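User: Earlier you gave me the apo prediction for this protein. Now I'd like the version with adenosine-5'-diphosphate bound, so I can compare the two side by side. Same sequence as before, with the ligand SMILES added.
Assistant: Got it. Here's the input I'm using:
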Amino acid sequence: MIKVTELTKRFKSGDSIVTAVNNLSFSVETGQFAAIVGTSGSGKSTLLSLLGGLDRPSAGEVRVDDLVISKGSDRQLIKYRRDMIGFVFQNFSLIPNLDATENVMLPMEFVGVKRSEQRSRAVELLEQVGLKGSKQERRPSRLSGGEQQRVAIARALANKPRLILADEPTGNLDSATGKSIVDILRQLSHSSATTVIIVTHDLSVAQKADVALRLEDGALAAT
Ligand SMILES: Nc1ncnc2c1ncn2[C@@H]1O[C@H](COP(=O)(O)OP(=O)(O)O)[C@@H](O)[C@H]1O
Ligand SMILES: [Mg+2]
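And here is the structure of the complex with adenosine-5'-diphosphate:
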């Protein structure tokens, strides 16, 4: 379970202070599919960074299961990100000179999984997200946007995370492809103990989510 309590993040911007996330409290149960919507600048990416331990709050708390990640040391946060979180971004963020399978193997290399096991698990994950056959041996530049995002999701799953954080994962995709990517993420949350939190502009995605949060100036607004 993810439990956010009175979470606030302020940034200094020149002489003024921006409150990017303003006193948020909510929780998401294990295995739920949660959607965050809101206009540009409403604090969505800042919130995901706090949930993923990429940044620390100015006040309040993020709790993932028994772990209060907002109070962890730098070392604990690195371990938390590596072992418990899978990130998916709008621009896919794949390594260009590695093929699809090698991209998915990389996070397993970081935690010392045997090479043969890395490869078989990577292939299994690529099959699971629908990237089959010789496409598994292609570099990202020879895959479509939707296929690259499938690779990125498989990579996010590599170390069996408890939480997938996806920041506008369909932002660079046409609407049909985007829909299939969202379907993959939703199925994933419901078929496993992986919780998925997705930032999206698509209100139809939010309507189908187990939890929908709308941000307005960093605060929760009615959905
Ligand atoms: N590192 C930063 N330094 C200063 N201001 C920031 C920083 N990151 C985000 N902000 C500000 O915080 C607000 C929320 O930004 P962000 O979380 O990126 O919104 P969204 O993802 O919803 O577009 C914006 O006003 C943005 O300019
Ligand atoms: Mg953003």
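For your comparison, keep in mind: The CA atoms of residues 115 and 182 lie 30 Å apart.
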